[in-house]
């Protein structure tokens, strides 16, 4: 058994964990250990082969709801989701955070640059956001960087009178290889792996990867319970990963402050198996997934969709009225094969036109429902994820599917496709040749195993709020009942953050780390 003694231990090195480690190292002289379940793979390792790069994903890309109906993709490597994501960067939405303040007492989280939240000089969301944007170079791509797929999507929207926007992206000098989802082989995508985690290591933060945290340890002091550290298992280093900083085998870490940043699936599972008090049975409940519905189209000419920046154009036209976005994305052949309808010869016929395919997706801002949840399942040794679309969410998704089909046909597709075996209305298959057929989408039921819904934006499983009867953590991220156990990642959002979550998570992490650095006494640190 290896043992480490530290001041602060952070579990998870993704969007939140990386920023926390670097910011705490920047502002304090504390000893910090950063633990990551996955490997530390750098740009030389990213070979742009979809199957090889599943090593960067939770359950090697096979993580799904317990019924197997919805893939729940997540990064499991140094950098977490930021290593495998598409760099689509949305600022935190002020109205959403103000709404949380009103509904859950969450705050202050001021968006005014002059605010001193928690009485800490200069602490506010606006400053933290500006810091994050600067460090990871969030900017809009140029005209020359828009590829065929994105141009077609923009044209289809324009023909339907739907305004589009350009995504902002966290990249620098991108060469447009098109493989953001497999890890950037050129270090041009500024994931936390190549930014904040490196900053943290330069400031002597110890990174331990291949480190699966099993439990958080506790002790009692009078009537108070406090976290004492974590027990983990360090797996053998996977070929291709950087060397590790401790030997394989059991690892015991003692720390004064434990920060959980393992993401919205693994964080509640860790708290549950560590038996963190949960008198209201709230942990894991109200999972939000941002269900995504892929929309494909076949064209009569060769397209070069697999090259260039994958996503550069989107539309938020329906965000205010219907709560969804259209986002331009495109998959390489392995993932495209999963997102294409049909089996056997039908599937083959569409796949053989791969070079003429275009695609984008609907991203639904789903409403929390307590039946949608994550539970630690001790018998299988993995989190059990349960999720069903609610009826109101289905209604919004039907409308999104209908308009999405109209966009694809208006872009010039011979056929627009949904990944579905359903036969909505009068249709024998979800292959749409005429605009008027799109209305049949109103008959879709989004049945499990029949219509493919994907997800990669898990949130809201350890909700933040000032009422312990409704929330797992307070606005500082401290778990009710254990002050020195702080949660900071996508799980603490009370509901969907309203857009792709990476920048919201990173801004929150910058904010909480700055706050902790100014409140060290609160955790017995000085
Ligand atoms: C394929 C994909 C594409 C995406 N595209 C975008 C996009 O373009 N824009 C956007 O805004 N968002 C995108 N997202 C979502 C975004 O990346 C996530 O919302 C964000 O990374 C969540 O941050 P987090 O810190 O909560 O968790 P993560 O970034 O997932 O980090 C959690 C880390 O904890 C580690 N961990 C888990 N359990 C343990 C344990 N027991 N012990 C130690 N470590 C553990 C995990 O391995 C992981 O590295 C995408 C996600 C995916 C998967
Ligand atoms: S498209 Fe750009 S940022 Fe993405 S992997 Fe290629 S070079 Fe890196």
Annotation keywords:
24% helix; six-stranded mixed sheet; 12 helices; seven-stranded antiparallel sheet; binds flavin-adenine dinucleotide; 526 residues; FAD/NAD(P)-binding domain; Cholesterol Oxidase, domain 2; alpha+beta; binds iron/sulfur cluster; 22 strands
Describe the structure.
By secondary structure, the protein is of the alpha+beta class. 24% of the residues lie in helices and 19% in strands. It is built from twelve helices and 22 strands. Strand 9 (211-221) and strand 10 (224-234) form a beta hairpin. The longest helix has 20 residues, at 391-410. The site of flavin-adenine dinucleotide has 41 residues, from helix 1, helix 2, strand 9, helix 7 and helix 12.
Could you outline the blueprint of secondary structure elements for this entry?
Blueprint: E1 2-5, E2 8-11, H1 15-27, E3 32-35, H2 81-84, E4 88-89, H3 94-104, H4 125-135, E5 138-139, H5 148-159, E6 165-166, E7 168-170, H6 196-202, E8 206-208, E9 211-221, E10 224-234, E11 249-254, E12 257-260, H7 263-273, E13 292-298, E14 313-315, H8 319-322, E15 324-327, H9 333-338, H10 344-351, E16 357-364, E17 373-377, E18 382-386, H11 391-410, E19 415-418, E20 431-432, E21 478-479, E22 482-487, H12 502-518
Parallel strand pairs: 1-11, 2-3, 2-12, 3-8, 12-22
Antiparallel strand pairs: 4-7, 5-7, 6-14, 9-10, 10-11, 13-16, 13-19, 14-15, 15-16, 17-18, 19-20, 21-22
Helix pairs in contact: 1-6, 1-12, 4-12, 5-11
The structure holds flavin-adenine dinucleotide and iron/sulfur cluster (SF4).
Largest sheet: 7 strands, antiparallel
CATH topology of the largest domain: FAD/NAD(P)-binding domain
Rg, nearest Å: 23 Å
Report the average pLDDT across residues.
96
Q: Poorly predicted ranges (pLDDT <50, ≥5 residues)?
A: none
Tell me the strand order in the biggest sheet: 6-14-15-16-13-19-20
Q: Ends: how far apart?
A: 29 Å
Q: Estimate the strand proportion.
A: 15-25%
Give the proportion of residues in helices.
10-25%
Contiguous helical run count: 12
Bound molecules: flavin-adenine dinucleotide, iron/sulfur cluster
CATH class of the largest domain: Alpha Beta
CATH superfamily of the largest domain: FAD/NAD(P)-binding domain
Outline: globular
According to DSSP, the number of beta strands is 22
Protein structure class = alpha+beta
């Amino acid at each position: 058994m290896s043992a480490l003694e530290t001041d602060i231990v952070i579990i998870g090195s993704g969007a939140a964990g990386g920023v926390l480690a670097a910011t705490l190292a920047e502002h304090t002289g504390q000893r910090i250990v950063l633990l990551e379940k996955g490997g530390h793979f750098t740009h030389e390792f990213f070979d742009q082969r979809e199957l090889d790069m599943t090593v960067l994903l939770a359950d090697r890309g096979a993580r799904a709801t317990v019924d197997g109906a919805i893939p729940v993709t997540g990064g499991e490597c140094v950098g977490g989701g930021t290593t495998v994501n598409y760099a689509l960067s949305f600022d935190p939405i002020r109205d959403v955070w103000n709404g949380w303040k009103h509904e859950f007492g969450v705050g202050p989280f001021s968006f005014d640059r002059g605010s001193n939240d928690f009485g800490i000089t200069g602490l506010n969301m606006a400053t933290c956001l500006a810091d994050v944007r600067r460090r990871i170079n969030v900017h809009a791509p140029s005209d020359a960087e828009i590829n065929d797929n994105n141009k077609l999507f923009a044209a289809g929207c324009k023909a339907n009178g739907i305004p589009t926007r350009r995504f902002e992206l966290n990249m620098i000098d991108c060469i447009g290889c098109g493989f953001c989802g497999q890890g950037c082989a050129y270090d041009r995508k500024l994931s936390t792996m190549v930014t904040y985690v490196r900053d943290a290591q330069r400031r002597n933060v110890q990174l331990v990867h291949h480190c699966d945290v099993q439990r958080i340890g506790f002790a009692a002091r009078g009537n108070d319970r406090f976290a004492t550290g974590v027990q983990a298992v360090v797996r053998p280093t996977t070929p291709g990963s950087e060397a590790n900083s401790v030997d394989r085998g059991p690892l015991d870490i003692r720390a004064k402050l434990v920060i959980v940043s393992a993401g919205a699936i693994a964080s509640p599972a860790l708290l549950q198996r560590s038996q963190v008090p949960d008198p209201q049975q709230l942990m894991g409940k109200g999972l939000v997934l941002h269900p995504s519905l892929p929309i494909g189209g076949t064209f009569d000419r060769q397209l070069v969709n697999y090259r260039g920046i994958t996503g550069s154009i989107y539309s938020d036209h329906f965000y205010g009225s219907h709560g969804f976005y259209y986002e331009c994305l495109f998959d390489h052949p392995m993932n495209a094969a999963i997102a294409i309808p049909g089996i056997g010869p039908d599937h083959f016929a569409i796949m053989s036109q791969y070079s003429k395919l275009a695609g984008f997706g609907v991203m639904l801002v789903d409403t929390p429902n307590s039946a949608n949840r994550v539970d630690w399942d001790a018998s299988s040794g993995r989190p059990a994820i349960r999720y069903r679309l609610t009826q109101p969410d289905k209604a919004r998704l039907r409308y999104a599917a209908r308009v999405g089909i109209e966009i694809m046909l208006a872009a010039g597709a011979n056929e627009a496709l949904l990944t579905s075996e359903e036969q909505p209305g009068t249709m024998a298959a979800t292959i749409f040749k005429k605009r008027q057929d799109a209305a049949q989408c109103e008959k879709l039921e989004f049945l499990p195993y029949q219509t493919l819904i994907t997800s990669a934006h898990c949130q809201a499983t350890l909700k933040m709020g000032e009422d312990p009867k409704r929330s797992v953590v307070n606005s500082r991220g401290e778990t009710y009942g254990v002050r020195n156990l702080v949660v900071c990642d996508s799980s603490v959002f009370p509901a969907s953050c309203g857009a792709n979550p990476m920048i919201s998570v990173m801004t929150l992490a910058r904010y909480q780390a700055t706050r902790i650095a100014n409140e060290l006494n609160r955790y017995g640190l000085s």
